[in-house]
Amino acid sequence: MSAEGRVRLTVLGGYLGSGKTTWLRHQLHAGAYRDALILVNEAAETPVDDALLTEAAGLEVLAGGCACCAGRDALVALLRRLADTRSRVRSDDARLDHILLETSGLADPGAIVAAIRADPVLVHHMVVTEIVVAVDALHGAAQLAGEALGRRQVETADRLVVTKVDAAAPDDVARLVATLARLNPGAAVSGAAKGDAHPLPDHAEAEPIALPALSADDAPIFTTRLTLDERIDWPAFTVWLSALLHARGDDVVRVKGVVRTPAGRLLLQSVRRVVQAPERLPDTVERGTDDTIVVIGRGYRGEDLARSLARFAGAG
Amino acid sequence: MCASCGFPAAPGHWTEAGSAGPGDRLRTRFRRAQVLKSVLRRYGLTAHDGAQVPGIQIGTLAGAETIVRDLEELWCAAETMLGAPVDPLDPRFLEESEAAA
After folding, report:
1. How many domains does one find in chain B?
2. CA–CA dist A64, A257 (Å, integer)
3. Under 8 Å between Cβ of A164 and A193
4. pTM above 0.80?
5. In order of start, what are the domains of chain A with their CATH numbers?
6. Neighbours of B101 (CB within 10 A)
7. Is B79 within 8 Å of A246 when comparing Cβ atoms?
8. Is A312 on the interface with B (CB under 8 A)?
9. Cβ contact (<8 Å) for B88 and A243?
């Protein structure tokens, strides 16, 4: 995917001990992310994970502070330094094009995306292309039931990897996958055992785990598909979406889609209140999914989104 | 930084990505102002973007006015002026604007 000259950033998250490093280690061994610089963030003062990731092309460790809160300034400073070094290399020479950030188990990936977007330098240099979240097949259900952080991690993911599938009972895994599909219907779910791809049991029949409400506004998340017809132009759409995210940013967890504009096809995505700088996609292929926006969130009625957007577009 | 107004050249806000060229950018600004005006009118607010100065002007009918750089700041300013955010999913807004249409 073209990032318009910016560095692609993949965020790998997941709860403590969910198998992030094991998965990444195997991916590196299998040849994925070979081009990427690996950044490992650990909340503890003494880093361990870097010793395990010996196959990476480049590795930097950020220890002593979770990158989404206490260690945020350190992360931003490190990314700025990398962007600065990269800017000194001619664009047609080999240079850093991909960073994979393995977060600490306590990090909210959404907060990291927000920090990068809010930084006036990094916003020009980095684009978050994917958020991968590892979910532990053995302990994931308990974490989702008891930890708001565990749910936030799952909700912001583009791709969910259920780890340790071989160690858990197939029925439990099926229920976990059904729960994940309910929490984040937009994410692709795959299985892994010791980092290697592992088939997931069929979850069509499985009953999702009943998650207790952790706070008053903890209704289940659902997906709404919005089709932008020709009456809805880009200015009206941006006015609507910016207002929606301002007022409902805590409820609207994720917005994704491709919008046709006079400037070309734009890939739009947001995590909570933060919208990434839209990426221009090549015009060559006409896709059926253009002008469809997927909104993932809770606490509102899905049909109100289309009504409200139509009101904004018809305004004036 | 613009020498006349002191507005620093902000990194392009995501809402400005959809325009193909200078003419189109101007058209987008006018259309955006038109949409804002009509939405904010229901809340007793005014919006104006004559494309003479950078930014969007937002004010109350009582005369309080401010200039904001982009839509993100605009909704923050609207919230300050109203005491509550402008919520596009507010049932009252939906019903009133549908009745008016």
Report:
1. 1
2. 37
3. yes
4. no
5. 7-197 (3.40.50.300), 222-314 (3.30.1220.10)
6. 9
7. yes
8. yes
9. yes
